[in-house]
Amino acid sequence: MAMTVRVVERPRRPFGTQIYLVEVWKGLAVTFRHFFVNMARHAMIALGLKGVTPGSVTIQYPEDPAVLGKRARTRHRLLKRDDGAPRCTACLLCETICPAKCIRITAEDAPDVLVEKRAKTFSIDLGMCIFCGYCVEACPVDAIHMDANDVEIAAYGRKDMIWDMPELLGDKKKCSSR
Amino acid sequence: MSALSPEILLWTAVKVLAAVAGFGLGIAGFLGWVERKQSAVMQDRVGANRADIFGVTILGLFHPIADAVKMLTKEDFQAKGVHKPLHGLAPMISLGCGMFCLAALPYGGTIAAFGRAWDLQPIASSVGLPLVLAALAFGVHGIVMAGFASGSNYGLLGALRGAAQMVAYEVALASSLAGVMFIYGTLDLQQAVLWQVAHVWGIVCQPLAFILFLTAGAAITKRTPFDLPEGESEIVGYHVEYSGMKFGMFLMTDFFESIVVCGLITTLFLGGWAVPGLDLSSMGLLGGALMLASFTAKVMALLFLLMQIRWTLPRFRFDQLLDLGWKNLLPLSLINFLVTAWLVYFHRTGALSWR
After folding, report:
1. So what's the architecture of A77-169 in CATH?
2. Total count of domains within chain B
3. Residue among B121, B127, B103, B144 at smallest CA distance from B250
4. CB < 8 Å to B312, chain A
5. How confident is the model at residue A31 (pLDDT cuts 50, 70, 90)?
6. Which of A16, A70, B47, B91 could form a disulfide with B249 if both were Cys (CB 3.0 to 4.6 A apart)?
7. DSSP code of B56?
8. What's the pLDDT at A17?
């Protein structure tokens, strides 16, 4: 195969670009505009004016709540049926598909004959979870969602990262061992 | 009254202390805050606002103090292979040169108060401009010494970049001022201000020199677009082996040099302490206060501009940097000087009278 030579033209810049001063001034105009517009906005908000666009896009996170996307995958949540019993039928599909092996389910007989089986314990180790969402997709009875809109799941120990069934159902508040 | 009489020496000491500790350190500390907040506002951010004293933050004004406390209490680590005496001497030379330059700027003229004349320039000298430029250029010794004493190739390379850049721009810096000095007919900074008070500001009669000096001055301060000697985040520079307050001294040197360059521009191009339409020298104490305020306001405005340039432009490549210094700024300033010299000559001989 013959070698091909491609000649790349050097970019030809007009004199006005080459002396650079005009371009510097254009750049400065942009940053100066941002500076003074934002200063005016900060000042108007400090004076108590309503309906002013904020001078910054920063979210002061720990004080202000985090803004999450509508479809953001966050902490897991177990859903209940209309009668208040957990929807989970302990089919172990989520435990099987989980690539991080972070779900542990033990099954027992359900009093409801139509359901036959239910989860005795259901725990997720969020310290191992990779938030892939496979468990949600695998579930045939729509028992698990990842829409708790809770991203503050950090804990002081690995044990505390494991959420059990009442905590995932929302019946019990997650409490840290510290 | 001789120049070495006790009260003159005492007044000079007070002035030097006020210039370095009050003006220099005050503005340098303030600049740390300005740098954070100005860059934040122009980039649609909030900026540092968390440092507080008893829950009071005042727009993050305590951050420079927190910085200083951090620098002072950090371990002064010296790596194996460091040349200890030079390693300690380098930041002192850098910072000392910046401090000396500050002491030679004319913050005000001569005012009459309490029955005698008070000169507001800390170190008055008939060769003030070469003195400041020499001290500014001497700062490069601190950089080279820092890189050499670090025992690190990264530090040494950064120092060599610094030396090449400082030399390139020192030449352009000095030669861009030649035309201005030719018009003023003096090397004394105070006399230069008085000439501008009597005639016209330097930026009007030497606009090209103003732009050249501003560019070369920005390069001398070793801040972004021209921060190749340091390049904190990408190309580590001459202070890579420094920590604690020694690093802080290099950091402050940058701010001090910025202040000195802005002070020189103010003195030589923006009329120094003068306020148009006011005869400050005959107004006594009020005139003195106005002189200091006017000088400080002009310096602050220039620092604002330099800071905006620093946060707007990306860093030059090193060959571009040297091209700009040797091939563009130097010839332009020499042409500027030649044209100015001919015009002044024709004007003095009367061959060029447009009135």
Report:
1. 2-Layer Sandwich (3.30)
2. 1
3. B144
4. 24, 27-28, 30-31
5. very high
6. B91
7. B
8. 81
d(CA B88, CA B82): 10
Q: What SS3 class is residue B185?
A: coil
**Burial tier of B262 (Cβ tally within 10 Å: 0-12, 13-18, 19+):** buried
> Are B187 and B106 a contacting pair, CB within 8 Å?
no
Q: Give ipTM to 2 decimals.
A: 0.85
Q: How many residues does chain B have?
A: 355
- Show the tokens assigned to B151: 């025992």
pLDDT of residue B3: 63
Across chain A, mean pLDDT equals 89
Q: Does A11 have pLDDT greater than 70?
A: yes
Cα dihedral B143→B146→B152→B157 (10° resolution): 10
DSSP state of B237: -
Does residue B38 lie within any of the structural domains?
A: yes
Task: Determine the straight-line distance between the first and last CA of chain A, rounded to whole angstroms.
Answer: 70
For tokens 């970019």, name the residue.
Answer: A11
Predicted TM-score (pTM) of the model is: 0.84
For residue B5, CA distances in Å to A37, B8, B10, B33, B119 come to 55, 6, 9, 41, 15
Under 8 Å CB-to-CB from B328, ≥6 apart: which residues?
none
Average pLDDT over residues A143-156: 89
Q: Where in chain A are the domains?
A: 15-46, 77-169
Q: Is residue B1 part of a domain?
A: no
How confident is residue B256, by pLDDT bands cut at 50, 70 and 90? very high
Structure tokens at B84: 């200890």
B119 CB-side CA count, 13 A = 19
Those of residues 8-47 in A touching chain B at CB distance below 8 A are 21, 24, 27-28, 30-32, 34-35, 38-39, 42
Asked if B308 has any chain A CB less than 8 Å from its own CB, the reply is: yes
Q: Is residue B153 packed enough to be buried (19+ CB in 10 Å), middle (13-18) or exposed (0-12)?
A: exposed
Taking residues A40-51, report their average pLDDT. Answer: 90
The Cα-based distances of B45 to A41, A94, B60, B182 in angstroms read 12, 43, 13, 46
Interface check for B118 against chain A (CB to CB < 8 A): the answer is: no
* Mutation target vs B (from A38, A41, A42, A44; most B CBs, 10 A cutoff): A38
The range of the structural domain enclosing residue B190 comes to 6-349
> Tell me, what DSSP letter sits at residue B326?
I
Spatial distance between the Cα atoms of B197 and B192, rounded to a whole number of angstroms: 9
Least confident of A32-41, B228-237, B319-328: B228-237
Highest mean pLDDT among A3-7, A102-106, B112-116: A102-106
Classify residue B355: in a domain, yes or no: no
Of B82, B94, B132, whose CA–CA distance to B250 is shortest?
A: B94
Binned at pLDDT 50, 70 and 90, residue B353 comes out as low
